[in-house]
Specification:
The chain is mainly alpha-helical. It has 2 domains: 30 residues; 145 residues, no CATH class. Helix content is 67%, strand content 2%. The protein is built from 7 helices and 2 strands, in the order H-H-H-E-H-H-E-H-H. A two-stranded antiparallel ribbon has the order 1-2. It is globular, with a radius of gyration of 27 Å. InterPro entries: CBO0543-like. This is CBO0543 family protein. Keywords: Membrane, Transmembrane, Transmembrane helix.
Amino acid sequence: MNFEEGLKKVDEANQQIVEANGMVMDVISTTFIYSWKWWFCAALIVVPWVTWFFIRERKSTGRLLCAGLFIMIFSAVLDTIGIENGLWAYPVKVIPSPTLSFSFRLSVLPVLGMVFIQYKPRIHPFLKAVVYAGFAAFVGLPLLATIDLYKKINWQYSYSFGILLGMYLTAHSLYNLNSYDKVQPKAKKKTSSVNFDYFRRKQRAR
């Protein structure tokens, strides 16, 4: 296979992705939208973020969002890799995306992580990470699996526990960075003012 043939193969793959999105959209509009499971998934996208907006610690909003956005990005990348390699799947789709779950990865996990970081800050972060990862991996995912919102194919919940543990600890470290102080604009250098009176007096003396 030469380079041009490779480009054609990639174009064919991209076309298949577009067709897959169309198939998912068709299923959503004709079947899923009339199911309580679809509405439950939709609520999982909206309700956690709305709840967090009201309970967040306002003075730490920026720090919390930094931690939450890290969890979102990391989870999105992980989801894409896992689904593309047949490790797990999300049978019920809220949004026509074959390789991403907006309900769990982009809503529940980041909001839950920000809540854990915000409350009881004196508790050791590793203990919080264990509770966070354990709840998500051994309670949340199995519950989603029982109602067909998550399907474990070639994966173990213990793997998710380890990844979630490291993800939370990283998010906690980002929250506690020392570089969140407001950036002050640099003060303009004062131009040395010329004392014209001095020159005038000197001219008169001459």
